[in-house]
Amino acid sequence: MDIKQLRALLAVAETGSVTRAAETLHIVQPAVSRHLKLLEEDIGTALFDRGRYGMELTEAGEILVEYARRALQELDRARSEIQPNDAQVSGVATIGLLPSTSGLLAGALVSAVKARYPAIRLRITVGYAGHLQKWLESGEVDAALLYNPKTTPTIQAQVLLEESLFVVGPPSSELEPSHPVPFADLSQWPMILTSAPHGIRSLLEQACRDTGVTLNVAAETNSMDVQKTLVACGHGFTILPAIAVNEDVTRGLLRTAPLCNPELQRRIALALPNTRRMAIAVRCATALLVDEMKIAVERGDWPSARWLGE
């Protein structure tokens, strides 16, 4: 088993075709087929079902693909560390962003990395805090933004900003930014929430325990876009930060009001792994991410946010 065989495995798994995999890898088709054959002989079982609809992974193939992807990511990180001191910063940096922040930060981060470190290959992964933390611990992302994280033996966290949460309703609702909604009033409305135990859902459940309020959960989803669509269509209300709905409010698709009694706030932190060395490319990319977040807050592009970082 060697690196070329693993790269061929991933290319065929992603494209579903030996021909397209060969084009992606810039090698001839027989070479890809040979790599797969040698790999299957080494493993001792078939990795693909070769059918009329293309190459489909077997159960063994799915297992090997998961480990191969992680192994190649670690090799990419090692390669970026082993370079002359005067070499241009290069390598792969996989950054995890929260759905509510990705629209504001993704483009700015790509532009900043391209301008400052053009040899860094940036990968942006978007997910809820619970998923991002698991991916960070497993090595699938190098750094991630998380809600209210606590430093653990596997993760170190630097709190960067604090922002208020808002009630979000359909355009037919009477929500007004100048009229805060008491938390207890949420019990009167059907609520569209993220699935437990992620981010804002955890904050809401803690607030419910503190106040004795019971929410009427009409639907749960792991997609913020679905969450906002259901609210816009009149299926209920939700709780989100202003940054997540700013454009929708401007377009008249949603209405918002601040929460009170109690106010709900979330803290966003940059989380890094304690269990592995951080590559130069990752350190450079995360420094730019922090810079772009601070600029967004100071410029007023991040509504209701207060900068807490240095």
Automatic annotation (TrEMBL):
Q: List the coiled-coil residues.
A: none
Q: Which UniProt keywords apply?
A: Activator, DNA-binding, Transcription, Transcription regulation
Q: Name one Pfam family in it.
A: HTH_1
Tell me which InterPro entries the record gives. Answer: LysR_HTH_N, LysR_subst-bd, WH-like_DNA-bd_sf, WH_DNA-bd_sf
CDD domains xref list: PBP2_Nac (cd08433)
Where is each HTH lysR-type domain found?
1-58
Gene Ontology terms describing biological process: regulation of DNA-templated transcription initiation
Q: Which domain of life is it from?
A: Bacteria
Family label: Belongs to the LysR transcriptional regulatory family.
- Provide the protein name: LysR family transcriptional regulator
Species whose genome carries this gene:
Trinickia violacea
